[in-house]
UniProtKB/TrEMBL annotation:
<feature type="transmembrane region" description="Helical">
    <location>
        <begin position="397"/>
        <end position="416"/>
    </location>
</feature>
<dbReference type="Pfam" id="PF13181">
    <property type="entry name" value="TPR_8"/>
</dbReference>
<feature type="repeat" description="TPR">
    <location>
        <begin position="158"/>
        <end position="191"/>
    </location>
</feature>
<dbReference type="InterPro" id="IPR019734">
    <property type="entry name" value="TPR_rpt"/>
</dbReference>
<protein>
    <recommendedName>
        <fullName>Tetratricopeptide repeat protein</fullName>
    </recommendedName>
</protein>
<keyword id="KW-0802">TPR repeat</keyword>
<dbReference type="InterPro" id="IPR016032">
    <property type="entry name" value="Sig_transdc_resp-reg_C-effctor"/>
</dbReference>
<keyword id="KW-0812">Transmembrane</keyword>
<keyword id="KW-0472">Membrane</keyword>
<dbReference type="InterPro" id="IPR011990">
    <property type="entry name" value="TPR-like_helical_dom_sf"/>
</dbReference>
<keyword id="KW-1133">Transmembrane helix</keyword>
């Protein structure tokens, strides 16, 4: 019964386990990582071609409509994020805030199933909130790192470590910054990522500078210069980066009071920047470092040379931060030469520029704050929606579990009831069979009792007849004048009676002979070393005939009969203390 129930329950429990597994596991779509990676590289190479990007957006949407695969809906949104509205003239969004709704939708659609999308979107948000909310930026960054590590860290991980190091650097936690810069260095490919590897060494130099270990900073910069100068056919970004690193090296020499080395480097880089007027900020930094060197060494003529360059570039400055930098250098000059009037005049000018800069910063901050608040509200709504969704899924799961349990209960109940009915029917049939068997056995017993009774009567009659036969012989022997013919006739009559009695007992005697034959066959099979003579004596022993009776039957002495018994026990190896008669009855 238990086996039958188990056979029915196992398939149902297997189905229940399968449904539990499906409903409780989050579907992973790591196989699509490369698809989104290739899409990101394609979009990054076409930032100046918005028409191509929009065409790709339409193409991805078409795939979604044809297949219904959510991956293509997400890829269309992801491609849309590469559209640079600032270049198309549709809007001015230097902070990239227009991307926030797209990024939010991507995270919602992906729901953690696409690691590349999760890492990319959280990285994007971390960059956007780096200055206005570093703590939130770190949270986004940690989510991006977790998603990238889960996918094997195949694309973003070095850049994510780099950015986390930068966040620590901005927070003045230089030791942790160096830890993550080192992680980024170790995850970059040394053959392909020379520029990024050089960048990490430059970050080490910046950290050493902040920790007042400028000799180490110079050593790291030398590594950067060596890497960059050995890059064959360098792109413009490599050339610009090399110039910036050399300016930083000059600054470290300046801090070490190695003025001559610092001046030579700065003059070389100033000539380079003068050929690239688009690098206004870098030019101003170079001029400030030269101004500080000349001021510390009281080289007024060289300071005036710096001011003449500043006067040349100042009219073309549009960025407020650059204007402030230039005016502060000029103000420092007038303070150095003691021209208080010019110092005050520049102070008022700088106040106006700072107010204007603060207004712009406040505007940007307000926009970022609004965007951040909007994101937080949407994120709360999303979490609430996810909770409702999860609760709905749990309710559906519970309903399925309860339904399956009811089905299992009904199945077990029906199985047990049917089994009970079958057992009851079988018990009834067995009762009838037992009753019939009992009747047959009773009839057989009665028949055997009748046969035994008849046998006893016949045996008694035979015994009485044999007694009369013997008495008659004795009488004939005593009487010498007996009539011989009459005597023979009487003896013939008595023998005929004995024969008739034996015929009546034939069936019973035959049954006994069959039993003896079966006994002899079993004994011979078990003890093949016994001879036919031995087997015959075993029959006598089983019938518990005495040695005297056996001697009369076999015409041997009583001692010979006992010797036969001992020999048979030895052949059978049953031990001297074993009763042979009792042992033979067990066979």
């Amino acid at each position: 019964m238990k086996k039958n129930i188990l056979r029915g329950i196992v398939p149902i429990m297997t189905l229940l386990f399968f449904l539990t597994f499906i409903l409780s596991c989050t579907t992973s779509r790591e196989d699509d990582y490369d698809y989104f990676k290739n899409l990101a590289e394609w979009g990054g190479a076409r930032l100046d071609k918005p028409a191509e990007i929009r065409a790709r957006v339409a193409e991805e949407l078409k795939k979604y409509k044809e297949t219904g695969d959510k991956k293509f809906l997400i890829s269309s949104k992801y491609t849309e994020a590469f559209v640079d509205l600032k270049k198309t003239g549709n809007a001015s969004d230097e902070l990239g805030l227009f991307q926030l709704p797209i990024v939010y939708d991507l995270l919602k659609l992906s729901n953690g199933q696409y690691s590349f999308v999760t890492a990319s979107c959280n990285f994007n948000l971390a960059v956007k909130f780096e200055k206005n909310s570093p703590k939130l930026a770190m949270q986004f960054l940690d989510k991006a790192i977790a998603a990238e590590v889960r996918s094997g860290g195949r694309y973003f991980l070095p850049h994510l470590y780099h950015f986390k190091g930068r966040l620590y650097y901005n927070a003045e936690d230089y030791k942790n910054a160096m830890v993550y810069f080192d992680k980024a260095l170790k995850t970059h490919d040394p053959k392909k990522d020379q520029l990024y590897i050089a960048s990490m060494h430059n970050n080490f130099a910046m950290c050493y500078d902040k920790m007042n270990q400028r000799q180490k900073a110079v050593q790291e910069v030398d590594i950067v210069v060596k890497i960059l100068e050995n890059i064959p056919r360098p792109k413009l970004e490599v050339i610009y980066f090399l110039a910036q690193v050399k300016v930083d090296k000059a600054y470290y020499h300046y801090k070490l009071k190695e003025y001559a080395e610092a001046e030579n480097i700065l003059l070389e880089q100033l000539r380079f920047y003068r050929k690239h007027p688009e690098l206004q900020y870098e030019t101003i930094v170079c001029l400030r470092y030269l101004f500080n060197i000349y001021k510390d060494n009281n080289q007024l003529d060289k300071i005036q040379g710096v001011l003449s360059v500043i006067n040349t570039i100042e009219p073309g400055l549009k960025d407020i931060a650059n204007q402030i930098e230039v005016d502060e250098i000029i103000q420092s000059y007038y303070a150095y030469v003691g021209n208080d009037t010019k110092v005050k005049e520049l102070s008022f000018k700088l106040m106006g520029l700072h107010e204007k800069q603060d207004e712009e910063s406040e505007t940007k901050f307000t926009r970022v704050s609004n965007a951040l608040n909007d994101y937080i509200i949407k994120n709360i709504n999303q979490r609430y929606a996810h909770k409702l969704e999860d609760q709905k899924l749990r309710n559906q799961f519970m309903f399925i579990v309860i339904l399956l349990l009811v089905i299992i209960f009904c199945f077990v109940f029906v199985t047990i009831r049917n089994k009970y009915r079958k057992d009851k029917e079988l018990a009834g049939k067995e009762k009838i069979i037992l009753q019939k068997t009992k009747t047959i056995l009773e009839n057989n017993i009665k028949l055997q009792e009748d046969k035994i009774s008849s046998l006893h009567l016949n045996l008694n009659l035979k015994i009485e007849t044999e007694k009369e036969f013997l008495e008659h012989i004795k009488k004939v022997k005593r009487s010498k004048n007996a009539d011989a013919e009459q005597t023979i006739s009487d003896l013939f009559f008595k023998i005929n009676n004995l024969i008739q009695i034996d015929r009546k007992n034939y069936d019973l005697i035959n049954e006994s002979s069959l039993e003896n034959k079966q006994f002899v066959d079993k004994l011979s099979a078990r003890f093949p070393m016994l001879t036919q003579q031995d087997l015959k004596y075993c029959v006598y022993f089983k019938l518990e005939l005495s040695s005297k009776e056996i001697s009369l039957l076999e015409n041997i002495t009583e001692g010979s009969a006992r010797v036969y018994k001992t020999k048979i026990k030895t052949k059978m190896d049953i031990g001297k203390d074993t009763d042979l008669n009792a042992f033979l009855k067990t066979i």
